[in-house]
Amino acid sequence: MSALFTSLNAGRLQLKNRLAVAPMTRVSATADGHATTRMAGYYAAFAAGGFGLVITEGIYTDKAFSQGYLFQPGLSDEAQRDAWKPVVDGVHAQGSRIVAQLMHAGALSQGNPHRDGTRGPSAVRPKGQQMVFYRGAGGYPVPQPISLDEIQEALQGFAQAAMRAREAGFDGVEIHGANGYLLDQFLTEGVNLRDDRYGGGVDGRLRLVTEVVHAVRAAVGADFLVGLRISQGKVNDFTHKWSGGEQEAATVFSTLGKLPLDYLHTTEFEAWQPAFGVPGPSLAALARRHGGLPVLANGSLHDPSRAGGLLEQGAADVVTLGRGALTHADWPLRVQAGERLAEFERGLLAPIADLDNADRHRARGAAPAAEDAAA
Q: Is 181 marked active-site?
């Protein structure tokens, strides 16, 4: 496990250890998308608990079609930008770094007060049901195919949100290209049926991702951290796999590796498992092999020996924790001290996955308080 607590100096990715908090949707902002004092305490607790890097929940980027959930925080205007400053300051005060994850929900939007309807690459109804613990109900509507003008609007949204993140003091941004949201929708066969330059083969389906990366880099400059999250599975299609297997993964990651990115962040249900269901490398290992960039790996890595083993094997450079971090905001300090780790309590995220619900759950004595680490 010692590998977890070594520093990392890889270009602009400079961390005091190899432990990061994964992005987790908490739908706890104000109705108009402002980060709150309660959110500042939530994020600061992870930094006080020893995590070297904190990645925020997905932040919507514009007042068009990007917002995915009611009470989701945004970076779509100056007031939202300024609301993030106390959050950033709280993490920095504990000696950790914080990255803003920029997200466009696309066809999976289930709570957007800015525009009617949803947009996706094609008029294909998303699989599955809206997520109740994010205040959704029923099936997803069929999106309208996003127009070329609306694509430009989305690109501008990513770029301007990234610029605001820098102005708010964030150490970097992570572009959300995973989990079934807009950029992943463009990558996904059967969801992207376009016959223009954004459709067809892998190169066309990756075009929007590449354009977003270039737009963000141009907005923030050469000296600001920019990462990208990518996955196979989706919040509405958990078992999805790329049909081209390892060959497609090699194409995807080699393409991403040529972009002006500082890291890739892969996420799978179990990060150490073979990416395609047969003996072979994990998705993180494939990203590291073909992308040539530092890799953050996410997926059921709350067991310290398993997390450390992934690093020791050279499959990743950093591990990101979701459930483990929610259970113990001071997970790194506990592991270093050899203390017991509790099991994740699903009541922290039900019936609504917000911070108020988590507070009520902890008040009933079912799980340790996240703020204990900051005391």
A: yes
